[in-house]
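Checklist before submission:
- one chain only
- standard amino acids only
- sequence pasted in full

Submission:
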Amino acid sequence: MFFLELLVFVLIMYFVIRPFYAVYLFVRPPRLRISFFTPTNLGVTYEEITLTSPDGVPLVGWYIPSRNTAAVILLHGHSGNRLGVVHHAEALVQAGYGVLMFDLRAHGSSGGRRFATSQAGVDDVLTAVAYLSKRPDVNPAGIGVMGVSVGGVFALHAAAQTVAIRAVAVDGLSPAALADLPAPTSLWRRFNIWQQRLMAQMARRYARQSPLPPNQEVVKKLGKRPLFFIATGSGDEAAMLKNLAAAAETAELWQLPEARHAQGWHERPDEYSHRLVAFFDGALARQDNTRITLPPLPEAMPVLAEVQQIAADGPAADSPAPDISPAIDYEATISMTGANFTAFLMLPLAFGLFWGPFYWVWGLWPFVAFFELSFSGTLTLLLVFALSILVHELLHAVGFWLVGGAPLRQIHFGFNWAGLAPFAHCPVPLRASAYRLTVLLPGLVLGVIPGLLGVAMRLPLLVMWSTLMLLAAGGDAAVLWAVRQVPGSRWVQDHPSKPGCRVLAE
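Returned file contents:
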């Protein structure tokens, strides 16, 4: 009976709670305010601006004046703010470009209560274009747009509605409609498409805004205008941008399979900056008499010995971290489907470690404590569980730092919106033995140890919480299985987009 109830609970969470929660977070994203950074940190002067969209929504941002008569509008991704494109701004400013970056509606300091990939977001970009066209330091023939993730959608669609946008660059482009996604090739992907269609309908009704046409249709309207597509990862996003590049008359496609969604800059910062500046140099009318040249690209990559030394000691405090791209022997990874499936296989382990001993010692099953909880107690337990997921990823970071010896500044945190889960990623190579311990740490600290204490001290709620944390560590268990045959002395690198790691060449 319990397993039936658990199955019903999982189905309700996945088919009901998850879609509603995902839609709510998309339409009402968390607002990230800016309080610690301004363009003066880049060594430039800037202007605080507030644009007003056609429907009266204030759009707050910064404008850095142009030194070469050309300017680029930078659009950040969902759940971010203008700081998400500050690295792009730095490269363009160094090359003499004016840069306009503002918080999208319902983000940061801008107005608006609801967000959607709709005409309203496109109108916001057109408002920014109108502002630049009236600037005395900007040539109207020198206006371009760069969009990240959903910002790329607004950039493309705005360019299709005005010839004032002379060039468009996108990084990690999001689909504007389900028609943009490649045709599903498996039963699981067909199921996901069905759920995405449901969530799209829900978001459209909640946001009260009409949807945009597919990116495929829009790209065909841009004619010979220069396009620069940056495809991250190796899944649907890469396939979608490859199809878009093929449909466009003039499009440059740069693929970064090792990068997470819209995180290409973090993987290859120097090359990224050069490609971005070179694209706009070739696409926009400008004057180069005030240009500041970017530093040259590195001609040779560091050898594995240097990578190992950095992993052991960390880079020198007075020197910048090098661009590390060690040779890869093979990958020890698993699919997201396999990782999720492994979570259910943790139930028998929980039964053997916690439930069976608890019943044998105390004569009752620990899950009966759930039925004695009040409504507020249930909400508290769910809140503790949500916070524990964050602690889970912090423990991974602690493992990368203390066990693997990786510098703290090299450890990145993020949120996977597709899986609705946070993550910790470390690009610094580790020994396979240290990597295994890092992967094992959260399940051991949050699952096994508290569960055994709950059995010993007759704390059924602690046992059930430990069970949930053991299920949360199911993906980690799958990764441990994937790397089981990797010798402990081999150097590995945490994979940027898949569960598992890359095994480096010896």
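Reviewer check: The radius of gyration is 25 Å.
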